[in-house]
Design goal:
Pantoate--beta-alanine Ligase, Chain: A,domain 2, 1 helix, 4-stranded antiparallel beta sheet, 4 strands, alpha+beta
Amino acid sequence: MTLAEVLLSLGLCVVVILSLIALAISALRSNSKSSDTVVAEARANQVLDEFVYGLPPATDPFWAQSSFSSPYQQDTTQIGSNNFTTQVYITSLGTAAPGLFRCAVNTTWQGGQAGAAGQGRQVVEVARILYAQ
């Protein structure tokens, strides 16, 4: 083999190895973001379920309200290395039917490096329609 062939093959190997490293880093970031999103959605669903099952009976004055503080509830929970902030928002849909509400839970967290594509402040929202019966 000549020196030119050896240098060309080494250069090609370096390009392939650097491409694989970049791909692995991208996959790890994507996996981390995906895991955080699953945790945040599970937390939002848990908070929503606790809120819904803790609602007062249909005769309570809660169901007659037309406006609520925004957010209605808020808390922060550390899961793993992230702090997840959950906020419960209630919107009256009384124009459609008295006692009809939309309950939404937003879960936010800081994911990855702020300013990087797909990173920074992340948000997951789950919602339900509530009706007093």
